[in-house]
Amino acid sequence: HTHESSSSKRKVIAVVGGGLVGSLNACFFAKRGFDVAVFESREDIRQAKVVRGRSINLALSHRGRQALKHVGMEDTIISKGIPMHARMIHNTNGKRSPIPYGKKGQYILSVDRANLNKELLAAADTFPNTTLNFNHKLHDWSPKTGAMTFIGPDGQRKELQADLIVGCDGAFSAVRKQFLRQSRFNYSQTYIPHGYMELTMPPIDGDFAMEPNYLHIWPRNTFMMIALPNLDRTFTCTLFMPFEDFEKIRSGDEVIRFFQKYFPDSIPLIGVEALKQDFFRLPAQAMVSVKCSPYHLFDKCVLMGDAAHAVVPFYGQGMNAGFEDCLVMDEIMDQLNENIAAVLQEYTRVRVPDDHAIADLAMYNYVEMRAHVNSKYFLFRKYLDNILHVIMPKTIVPLYTMVTFTRTRYHEAVNRWHWQDKVITQGLWLSGVVSAAGGMYVLVRNSHKLPSISAEHLWTRILTSKRF
Ligand code: FAD
Known about the structure:
It is a single chain. By secondary structure, the protein is α/β, with parallel strands linked by helices. Helix content is 41%, strand content 23%. The chain contains 15 helices and 19 strands. It is globular, with a radius of gyration of 28 Å. Flavin-adenine dinucleotide binds next to α1, β3, β9 and α10.
């Protein structure tokens, strides 16, 4: 990219939040030649001893990878990821059955969140036009002047100015607070009744305790457990369950009893003692879904990543959508010659329907993953959809494939899914009717081969049978 700034001074972009999306976004803006300043409330996790935060590992897929590729980070990240080619379903009697994610060779990657964040911060740090400011917590900002107030490392307030504020400060965004004060800003947030808890499954004799190249799932209708592999040969198990069920389990023995009933095969793998302790180490964490629009405020500010759209984690798309946000923004920057006011408007126009669609899909999968992976019809439909995809690769593409392995816009993927579903369901109906009709036809056509029973004949038979 060649970059010609319209003014003599380069525009200053303040990226608030140096999490996954903020650190990647800094690379995108820096690559364009803007002056970038990242403000992150935490200390520099590259130097931190313990990294607190959400899920330990995440599933990275096509959209996220495409965005990483654009800033030259794809190979670095995938070299430290573990491919997962299929789900591995564990039922209560310990039986395991794989369900592939897509076609042969298609897989998602288990990546370590802390490492991903560190690598992205390091990448942003390599740009001479980027500064990283840790221990800077955004307190408030003014939509009128664009001035931001931070609480700095020494607890002192700091006023800073930028041409554009990019809010990448997560689901509880401080940047977003100013949006909430505006007229015609739509906002909704929903907490689901489920919480999540992470448990570690250590290696056995130095090797993974289960098959590593799978996303393991223990679906149990109202709750479920999943496990993703880590480079150190551990698995991180995540138990998703209604808070009220978490609260019912109060002692180590109750934990074991619960696991014996629902996840018996995991007990020896996690370890009885570890399970009894780890379960009470941290309380279950809440999950929130946030939708809003527009994503921009004048030509001053734009929300991206979880700050714009926190989604429940059941499609493995939160980070991927946030990474794709950066790519979409970059594409629009190209289209509109970095005219910030126009870019922000276009970004909202293009991105809101897609991010809303993935928020809805994630919520839908919240139900599907828990309940349907156990249902015969669901499995049959997954199977059928995959077969149809192989036969007619252009016409029928499973929803999961569109979302995970393509950059089909999320809202188009949803529309197409509804259309395909209608066609396939009607097809199933039709083939049902055709085979019923076919059966009838065969019967009628061959009726001459059946013993012919006329009324007269019948009467004679009855009479004779009575007589003899
Ligand atoms: P965050 O990661 O939340 O980062 C926000 C950053 O802003 C943080 O560093 C924070 O310290 C900083 N910050 C906050 N407030 C301020 C402030 N006032 N001033 C300055 N800085 C501030 N996504 C996937 O794609 N695949 C998965 O498999 C997946 N699994 C998940 C599992 C779980 C259990 C959860 C909860 C989420 C999962 N996600 C997954 C979603 C993913 O975690 C998020 O979408 C992603 O972290 C969003 O990145 P972000 O940078 O927008 O926000």
